[in-house]
Amino acid sequence: MKIYENDKIKEKLFFKELASGLKIYFMPKEGYTKQYAIFSTNYGSIDNIFVPIGEKKAIEVPEGIAHFLEHKLFEEPEENIFDKFSKLGANVNAYTNFTQTAYLFSSTENFYENLELLVHFVQHPYFTDENVEKEKGIIAQEINMYRDNPNWRVFFNCLRAMYGEHPVKIDIAGTVESIQDISKELLYKCYNTFYNPNNMVLFIAGDLSFDEILRVIDKTERKDSKKIEEVNRVFKEEPKGVRENFIEESMMTSTPLFYIGFKDEDINLSGKERVKKDLMTNFILDMLFGSSSIFYNELYEEGIIDSSFGAYFTGKKSYGHSLIVGESKKPKEVYERVMNLFEKDPQSILNEDDFNRIKRKNIGGFLMSFNSVESIANNFIDLYFEEVLLIDYLEILESIEYKNLIERLKKHFVKENVVLSIINPLS
C-alpha cells in the first residue's frame, strides 16, 4: 500500500495494486455522510480497432459496441441491478464517452454491501443471444432520439467536418445499422480485452476504512482474469487539416444553432504536459469568450448571441478541438467576428490581468471541488487515464504562465483548422 499526500490541499490518497493488476485509490473524507465509488475502464467509443486478448491480429468491431456493452453489463439472469442497489439505499449509474466507460454509485448507508455489488456485476457479464437482440431495439430508439436532436446533430456534424479518419467523429452509440452487427461473441471479446483488471481503476471517496474496502474487493473480484500489460489499439492516420470548413443542415429548431470548431494538431502529448495544454486552451477561451469578456458582452448587447453562447476545449492523446457554440439569428456573423478576433495580435486580446483572475478562479474552483465526493471521484478518473493524479493537478495549474497562452493561441487558433457547423430552422 502507498499513501500520497499533498500539504497544500490537505488531502491524502491511499493506493494499492492487486495481483490481478486492478488499481484501487481511496480518498478519506472524515465526517462526510455521502460515499462515492467509481469503477472505470480505459475503453471508449473510439476503441473500435484493436488486438483482442490472446490473439495476434487486429480486428475492427461495430461502431457503438462500447456503449452497447455498458448497457448489457446491467443485465443479470435474475433480479435487476438497479433494484438491488435501490434496496441498499444507493443510486447507481454508468456512462460511456469517447475514451472510457465507468460504473458508479453514491450512498449514505450500506457502502460495503454496495461496493461488493458494484465489483461483482462489472466483473461478471451475462450476455445471451436473446438479451443482445432485445437490447438492439432499445438502443436503436436511443440513437433515433439523439439523431432528431438539433443540438446533438450540430455537434457531430462539426466533428465529422473536422476529422477525416479519427473515430471521435462517430456517435458514441453508433448507428442503427452498425449495432445490428453486434453479437454475444463480439461483446465477450471486447469485454475480455478491455475489462481486464489491469486496464481498470476503482476510486472511492468517503468516511470509510481502506482496510475494509480491500477486504470486500479481495472477497469479490474475479481471480481468473489473465493479466495483460496494455491493450494494443489501432488508429488510422488522421490527415492534416479539416475535411471541410462548412457544414449546414435544416431541422426543427426555432433559432439557428452553430458550432465553430478548431481542430488541434498538437497531439500525442501525455501526462502533465497534455493536461497543462488543455488548461491553457480553456484559459484562452474563457478570457476571449467567457461571460465577462469584451467579445461576449459586445455581441450580447447587439443581440447577436444569447446566454447559450460559450466555448471550451476538449481532447485526449489522439485528438483535440476547441468549440465555440451557441444560438444566433446571425451565425455566420458570429463566425466572422470570431475569426477577426483571432487575426489580432494575441497580446492585444489576451489581457494579463484577465489571465491572473481566471487562473485564481480555476485554483479556487479546484480547491472547492474537494467539498464534494462526486467532484473528487469524477475529476480523479478523468485525470487518471491521462497519467496524472488528482493531487498533482494544483501544481499543473500553478505552473501556467501568461506567455504560455500567447504561444498556444498562435499555434492552435489558425484558419486552416477551423470548421463552421450550422443547423438552420426548417423554412
UniProtKB/TrEMBL annotation:
Name the UniProt record assigns to this protein: Insulinase family protein
Query: Which PANTHER family does this chain map to?
Result: METALLOPROTEASE (PTHR11851), ZINC-DEPENDENT PROTEASE (PTHR11851:SF134)
Protein origin, superkingdom: Bacteria
The record places domain Peptidase M16 N-terminal at 50-175
Any Pfam family from its record, for instance, is: Peptidase_M16
Q: Which SUPFAM superfamilies match?
A: LuxS/MPP-like metallohydrolase
Segments forming domain Peptidase M16 C-terminal: 181-361
The organism named in the record is Tissierella pigra
GO MF terms, alphabetically ordered: metal ion binding
